[in-house]
């Protein structure tokens, strides 16, 4: 049994998807919530950005059917209607894997059987790999880099299927990506129930998917959302926990910032030295998104297209934002980030034209590089638990202990889990 009013006033530091998910859960349970966000807007790494009057995303985000916590939250907030769901259809040059609407695992078996661009021996190798993972129950005896884990797979399969999935999901080059987290992703998407591998694409800017609706949900239930309010420190007092520059004590404080900012907020608590050591081991990976506006919508055969094998960009048709809008995304660090923006634009335009044919006139473009888009999902990374050794102090974010890489689902799960811990502890206090 949990009781919202027993949980007591709760502060949430950070209005990214983790902080918002936590605040929504707590507000729904009747907990008095105050959310502090340092930026002028909510959403964190999944936010809308104004581009000449069009709300674009700071980076194209893709979800899959296995994002249960995220989809549940959007259902609750009434924004799931802004999503478009399609059966998995991976198209990279020279390769296509489309999964039919059959029950699992037949959808995957039939998809592989019909996959374009693989020889029979490569298809058999893919099936052997899947059987191997199942025999291990997707649990590796020891984590290792994904490229070593995949070394017995044919190069074509790695280049066209496993590599693109791993790099897109973990946002980490294969040579340093965690094979265990890659297995977790495969278990819960491609090798999960039929709908788990569905592609779920936003058909509205990120701000409308969660941040705006979550803020309304929280304030309608008596909560407070404070924008442009950076919290610089947390300490304990005789009542509970106090925030620097805020004249009120809270029973619980949830630090829901980017992991790079979390450690600085815990320095008032010597007992959290272990958590700070865990956070100090994190490193970061970038994501580049090139927004293109054409005079007319280019003819995409499918709204998401791979523009090359291995670590290559993906193109997304985004006519929902404005006619002729396209986002081209390249995950993780690589030589592309050393190119001048104009050269990168030309390279992507050429690849897009190779994939879909002659392009309409380009009228505008904008490159957004998020340098610390995600934490590098490396083998054996020790991630902190949401509950810290300091009573009432919690961590929420895509980086807390869990099966997934830095994703919206990881962030939302973490926020929901944090709220559950606060509620579970409430009546026992
Ligand atoms: C370009 C890009 C593309 C991505 N693509 C995908 C994708 O396709 N699919 C997917 O699932 N995931 C994707 N991700 C990852 C996903 O966006 C993140 O995993 C998720 O948004 C992290 O949410 P979070 O709440 O944990 O952290 P954040 O979003 O970082 O939120 C932290 C918040 O805390 C605020 N803050 C920081 N310090 C303070 C302070 N002292 N006081 C108050 N507030 C503070 C920040 O301003 C921020 O709003 C992508 C990320 C990027 C950047």
How does this model look, in words?
With 429 residues, this protein is an alpha+beta fold. The protein has helices at residues 4-7, 17-28, 68-77, 106-114, 120-135, 146-149, 155-170, 179-188, 206-209, 211-220, 259-262, 273-280, 341-356, 408-426, and strands at 10-13, 33-36, 48-51, 54-57, 62-64, 83-86, 89-92, 95-98, 199-202, 224-226, 234-236, 241-243, 249-250, 252-255, 284-294, 304-306, 314-317, 325-331, 362-375, 393-395. It folds into 3 domains: 4-54 and 205-282 and 378-426, FAD/NAD(P)-binding domain (3-Layer(bba) Sandwich); 88-197, Orthogonal Bundle (protoporphyrinogen ix oxidase, domain 3); 284-375, Polyamine Oxidase, Chain A, domain 2 (Alpha-Beta Complex), CATH 3.90.660.10. Helix content is 33%, strand content 21%. The strands form 6 sheets. A 5-stranded parallel sheet has the order 10-2-1-14-20. The protein has a 5-stranded antiparallel sheet with strand order 16-17-18-15-19, with helices on one face. The protein starts with a helix and ends with a helix. Bound molecules: flavin-adenine dinucleotide. Residues 13-19, 36-39, 44-46, 58-59, 61-63, 230-231, 256-258, 261, 287, 289, 370, 373-374, 397-398, 406-411 line the site of flavin-adenine dinucleotide.
């Amino acid at each position: 049994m949990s009781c919202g009013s027993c949980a007591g006033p709760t502060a949430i530091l950070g209005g990214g998807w983790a902080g918002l998910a936590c605040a929504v859960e707590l507000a729904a349970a009747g907990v008095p919530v105050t959310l502090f966000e340092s930026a002028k807007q909510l959403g964190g790494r999944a936010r809308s950005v104004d581009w000449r009057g069009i709300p674009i995303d700071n980076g194209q985000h893709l979800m899959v059917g296995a994002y249960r916590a995220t989809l549940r939250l959007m259902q609750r907030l009434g924004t799931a209607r802004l999503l478009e769901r399609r059966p998995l259809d991976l198209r990279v040059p020279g390769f296509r894997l489309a999964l039919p609407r059959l029950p699992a695992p037949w959808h995957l078996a039939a998809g592989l059987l019909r996959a374009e661009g693989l020889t029979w021996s490569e298809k058999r190798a893919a099936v052997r790999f899947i059987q191997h993972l199942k025999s291990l129950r997707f649990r590796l005896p020891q984590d290792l880099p994904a490229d070593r884990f995949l070394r017995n797979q044919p190069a074509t399969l790695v280049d066209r299927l496993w590599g693109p999935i791993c790099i897109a999901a973990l946002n980490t080059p294969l040579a340093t990506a965690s094979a265990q987290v890659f297995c977790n992703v495969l278990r819960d998407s491609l090798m999960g129930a039929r709908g788990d591998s569905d592609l779920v694409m936003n058909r509205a800017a990120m701000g409308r998917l969660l941040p705006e609706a979550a803020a309304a949900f929280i304030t309608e239930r008596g909560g407070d959302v404070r924008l442009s309010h950076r919290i610089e420190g947390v300490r304990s007092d005789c009542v509970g926990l106090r925030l620097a520059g805020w004249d009120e004590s809270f029973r619980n404080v949830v630090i829901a910032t980017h992991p790079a900012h979390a450690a600085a907020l815990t320095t008032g608590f010597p007992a959290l030295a272990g958590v700070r050591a865990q956070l100090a081991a994190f490193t970061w990976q970038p994501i580049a998104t090139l927004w293109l506006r054409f005079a007319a919508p280019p003819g995409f055969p499918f709204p998401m297209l791979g523009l090359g094998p291995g670590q290559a960009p993906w193109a997304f048709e985004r006519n929902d934002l404005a006619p002729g809008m396209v986002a081209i995304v390249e995950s993780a660090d690589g030589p592309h980030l050393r190119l001048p923006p104009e050269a990168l634009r030309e390279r992507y335009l050429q690849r897009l034209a190779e994939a879909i044919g002659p392009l309409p006139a380009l009228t505008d473009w904008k490159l957004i590089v998020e340098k610390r888009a995600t934490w590098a999902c490396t083998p054996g990374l020790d991630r902190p638990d949401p509950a810290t050794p300091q009573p009432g102090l919690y961590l929420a974010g895509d980086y807390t202990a869990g099966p997934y890489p830095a994703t919206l689902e990881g962030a939302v799960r973490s926020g929901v889990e944090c709220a559950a811990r606060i509620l579970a502890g409430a009546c026992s206090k």
